[in-house]
């Protein structure tokens, strides 16, 4: 995801114009090859920029192309083709409906509320994008659904964002929140539906020279993009761009535009001079120890092309990167690598309701109208209708008369997840030992997390601020990497630490999870929330943060790690309405045990 | 419908391809798990397998994939008058995340219940995948109650439905194929152990290979029919290889020596239970059949050990060593490199 640059003095991002022109270009490319490009991850709140972009896309799409919008609370039953319950009940025979994905075949499917999308629904959408088909009823054939998905993400970079399974399959990511009205109104797409129609007719005949293909692969690697799906999408974008500009084959300009739009937002590192096999990017899988035994066989369809020399390819890749960067203001480039990292440091985000109507273990039946994910409880519905059959007038041939009041829907129970947030005082001389033990406790808890489906997060505070070192996760591999480098020492911004933990807990509760905070500290804060030193201000801020946590009903445990348990930590626990435990020189295993006991209490 | 990408045109991915071929040769090996980053071609490879499987005999109109002459007790078509045999492709069924129990197990047939008042069972994905493969993308994110259900069916080879006044059981011998990204969550150990083989999938690191992947994908998407025609010969070679291996499987010998080696290997690695040992021997036998060997050799056993045992090791949360590396070390110690 591209980070927005610092605002210029008049409050407008320096490159809003460039951003918007790119957004319009992406719309045109989607209009040329909707199914091939998968769609757009649209990071924008409701507002003029989003509306203007959607309107531009609609103008560019052929008038006959379908345009469908999914409901906010999407469940996968609603995506697939299936029986239309109303018609089935009315006619007494099964009536199939095509489902929104199949109705969008050849056009655009809008997905509002993508930031909170359930993983199951994301997986089902990914399958539709992969196969170009909406699944049917279990033994049914399904229907074609070759479409572009426009996912509205209003999370503004906070919280969960789009599930990665889906994000990977959409060619473009556009962040439009910072584009001012003057720009969206002042800059219209230079293209129209006729240009798109012409490009569509040319698209199939556009070639990509093999050397340029290779240069694009090399360029993507320089940005630390390892997913080959991204490169394939970039290639298709380049072809659509060449078709739009009327070329017979993809040139370097079209390739650079495609890299800028598809690869750059996925970048995990700034381009390096060397090929990045040795580069210590965090995304990089370890290099393959054993090279493949046989070189890949020559592709029969490409046999006649003479491969270009490695130097030529590298030179071409260099030119592509230069062309990409020439279009970008320097601030964007500077903030890019950091932005890419922040983008990945997201929560696991599989929030679940305790009692829902969609999934989980069955938990009874209640009256209600099926649809929108609520599922009919057939036996109970029939039972409810049965006593009235003699009284109700039935149409000739109709054997059952079922009224709306008879309808029953099922309820389901999903086990609730618990997030354990470790807030660790990483200040002072005892920091290193304490941190090491906290890290050990996190890993011990995580090792059990897959059994219990619990999540763990880690906040550390030291120096002037608190930092979320491990966002909520249950993935051991990721936790280990986040914990590997954890600095210690410095002053104690205790208030900021409590605040950071409370924010994580609040987010988790909003997602439908339970949350508990485990605070490891000696209770002696000496830095205020705003980063200034001074015991008095720090004490006031700590008290305020603790009181806020208590008011919010935060479930917390304060573990006193001072060598001799002191009254400060006990007072803090009282102020937070938290449990208190003195564990001088706490060991990883004892901390983990305390956290487990806390979980049992919470349950 | 867009055809699947041909299996033989997949670049690299040797371990995953071998594992899938082994599972196709001997379904009793018990499923394949592919873990790796996004965009590495796991789904493509697994979906490509369907085209290699020789068609199977079934009965026209049957929703349970019953083999002719051996119908499930609840199958109305096969137990009806004059069932007509037909050939149909071996099913490779996608199980989407968030699938409901109804969809997996089957449910009361709405149409029949409403129109004729008959209580009639409409089978689910498990019946559709019987005698074939059930593919679960992001299996590590699958909901627990569905996982439990799959475990039960995978172990018993039978699906049992007891609800809505229905009491149905039908055979469901399925090969589970799962894929996922370990960065997004671990798999429960109970489910892990049910997969016969597990492989780690990585994006190719060699530029020439990456270029080849992109080039073939591009050629395929632009002209699927032409691309399939170009690869038809390679596909038919792979199909023949699989057919020969299935035929040869019962005749492949597993000597006492090889069995002892397998037991020693499992002992030295401390894998839980006998499942690992059984899988190791079965997988080695299937690989021998695929490669036209008459007996299971030590070298073959050594090659197959990482994918048969890697996911069965006791996990130490503080040990970062990849499981496959630990297996390879044990193999080197026992068999000698």
Produce the secondary structure layout.
The complex is a heterodimer of chains A (603) and B (337).
Chain A: H1 16-32, H2 34-37, E1 39-43, H3 48-60, E2 67-69, H4 76-79, E3 82-83, H5 85-91, E4 96-97, H6 99-103, E5 108-111, H7 119-131, E6 133-134, E7 143-144, E8 148-153, H8 164-167, E9 172-175, H9 181-186, H10 193-203, H11 210-222, H12 228-245, H13 252-263, H14 310-326, H15 330-344, E10 355-356, E11 361-367, H16 378-385, E12 408-413, E13 418-425, H17 431-452, E14 455-462, E15 465-473, H18 476-484, H19 494-510, E16 514-521, H20 535-551, E17 555-560, H21 567-575, E18 579-582, H22 588-602
Parallel strand pairs in A: 1-8, 1-9, 2-5, 5-8, 13-14, 13-16, 16-17, 17-18
Antiparallel strand pairs in A: 3-4, 6-7, 10-12, 11-12, 14-15
Chain B: H1 14-25, E1 32-36, H2 42-48, E2 56-59, E3 85-88, E4 92-94, H3 101-105, E5 106-108, H4 110-115, E6 121-123, H5 125-129, E7 133-137, H6 144-156, E8 158-163, E9 166-171, E10 175-180, H7 189-194, E11 197-201, H8 207-222, H9 224-230, H10 232-248, H11 256-269, H12 275-290, H13 298-309, H14 323-335
Parallel strand pairs in B: 1-10, 1-11, 4-7, 7-10
Antiparallel strand pairs in B: 2-3, 5-6, 8-9
